[in-house]
């Protein structure tokens, strides 16, 4: 099955019905500005051209907000491939789903001028989703990919081809699904309990206009689990979560995210740090981290308590 995405059609899905009737998904971010000359070269080329343009239009916006807006705009306009599945949340707790049917179109003078044609197929109810999928689909980001949910979405949307039966898809993805669900549960728990953690005493999850947008923050090498900012606004923190034991490969992964933050998001005088959170480490990751000065390792612990019924 192709990649699957959530694309929010305005705040609270206010434009969802209009876009569904018209056969599109759409986003705004930069209003009536023709971005077509800057498409076709990938996320880094787009960001290099558009970040400065957006910053000139909105000079009060910090670079993190600029990166978020232009990252979402690129994902909607070019990152989503033709044939990908898209879900549009509606105010009634349903998700309209369809298949992207073409490339970028510019529709100036409309509420959502940056569009992709979509062949809308039907709708699914949030209550029919697994808790993990429902939680992931509720992330307050305008455009983001639904990773490791292909089998469940195939079942819910019934878009799987006959040559790829759902049972086979589910069987081949069970291990990946379980791993992803454990990491998502860890992410959700950390986000919901952030204020009571040691990290929460130093940092806040990044927010824009009062909305937390630091969860699954987009970069040109993939989404960061959590992007946070210190309470004095001087440090950005990249958080990477791993279930169970972390391998030394995660060090390179978080360094790529930190490199993106350093190049694209830092304001003058700011610095970037990283933290890897897992249940266990090993000698290889300790050796790798010993050569870095701004990445730390933290362990999480799962506890169960049994009490006599009274």
From TrEMBL:
Family annotation (Pfam families): NucS_C (PF01939)
UniProt keyword list: DNA-binding
GO molecular function, one term: endonuclease activity
Residue ranges annotated for the Endonuclease NucS C-terminal domain, each copy included: 207-299
Superkingdom of origin organism: Bacteria
InterPro entries, alphabetized: Endonuclease_NucS, NucS_C, tRNA_endonuc-like_dom_sf
Membrane-spanning residues: none
Protein known as: Restriction system protein
Organism: Pseudarthrobacter equi
